[in-house]
Amino acid sequence: MEIATPRKKVTAPLILARKGGPRIRMITAYDYPTATIADRAGADIILVGDSLANVVLGFDDTLSVDLDVMIHHTAAVARAHPAPLVVGDMPWLSYHGSTADAVANAGRMVREGGAEAVKVEGGRKRLSVIEGILDAEIPVMGHLGLTPQSVHAQGGYKVQGKATEAARDLIRDADALAEAGVFAIVLEGVPTVVAEIITKEVSVPTVGIGAGPHTDGQVLVFHDVLGLHDGHLAKFVRQYARLQDDAIEALADFFSDVEKGTFPSDDESYSMSEEAARALLRDEPRGDAFDAF
Ligand code: KIV
C-alpha cells in the first residue's frame, strides 16, 4: 500500500491543471480525524460535503444543515492542515438569494471555516452567483446532475440526464460553468455516456460520483467507502472496509474486559512509591490493598 504523505499543498489551479492528467482522488471528510485519514491516504481534494447531514448528524436529507454547521465542520477539517484542497460545500439556501448574500456566505466559509474553495450545486440557473463568488477570488467547484439539495424539485434522488434533451441541458450547464471559470465540476448520478461527453467537451476536470468511469476523477462519501454506517448504499458505492463492524467488535471486547475485571492491567495503571503507600495503608488499612504490600 502506497501512502502519499507529507505532500505538496494541492490548490484549485493545480486541480484545474490536472485536466486529462492523472485521475483526481476526492473524498468527503467532516472533522479532524477524517481529514487526517483522507490526507494520509493520498486524497487530492477533501470535500466537506453537506452529506454530513446524513452520515454524521443523522438527518434524512441535506436540506437540514445550514451555513453555521458547515463552517463548524469545515473549520475542524482545516485544523488538520491537510495537503489536499479543502472544499467547503455551500448548503441549501446559502446561495439561492442575492449574489451579495452568496458572496458573503462563501466568504464566511473561507474566513471562518478555512475552506480553500466552495462547491455550489446547479448549472446556468446559478451562474450569476457563481460568477459573483469567483469575482471575490474564491475558487468554485460546480456540481451537476443529481443534486441532493434539489431532492424535492427532482422528485427524489434520481439519475439525471437520461432523456436526450435533459442530457443536452446538462452538457449546456457544464459548458456554462466551465466558461464562467469553475476549477472542476462534480457530476453526480448521470449516465456514463453523458459524463463522458461532458468530460470530453469541457476544459475543466470532471469528478464523478455515480457517473461511470470516464470522468477526470472520482469522489465518494467517507462513511460509505469505509462502512461506517449500515444505512442504504447507492449502486455506485464500492465499500472498501466495514469499520462499523470493527468498531462494534472492539468496543464489545473493551466492555467484556471491564466486566471480567481484566482491564486495566498494572501496566495501564499508575503507582506510588512503596514507602508512601505503606504509610498511607498503615493508618488506614484497606483489606486487599494492604495485602499487596
Ligand atoms: O455532500 C457531498 O458529499 C457531495 C458529494 C457526494 C459530491 O456533494
Detailed description of the structure:
The chain is α/β, with parallel strands linked by helices. It has two domains: 12-245, Phosphoenolpyruvate-binding domains (TIM Barrel, Alpha-Beta Barrel), CATH 3.20.20.60; 247-291, no CATH class. Helices cover 40% and strands 13% of the residues. It has helices at residues 12-16, 32-41, 52-55, 67-78, 99-111, 127-135, 164-180, 192-201, 222-225, 243-260, 274-283, 288-291, and strands spanning 24-28, 45-48, 85-89, 117-121, 140-145, 184-188, 206-209, 217-220. Strands 1-2-3-4-5-6-7-8 form an eight-stranded parallel barrel, surrounded by six helices. Helix 8 (192-201) links the parallel strand 6 and strand 7. Helix 5 (99-111) packs across helix 6 and helix 7 runs parallel beside helix 8 (192-201). The longest helix has 18 residues, at 243-260. The radius of gyration is 25 Å and the shape is elongated. The structure holds 3-methyl-2-oxobutanoic acid. 3-methyl-2-oxobutanoic acid (KIV) binds next to strand 6. The site of 3-methyl-2-oxobutanoic acid has 11 residues, from strand 6.
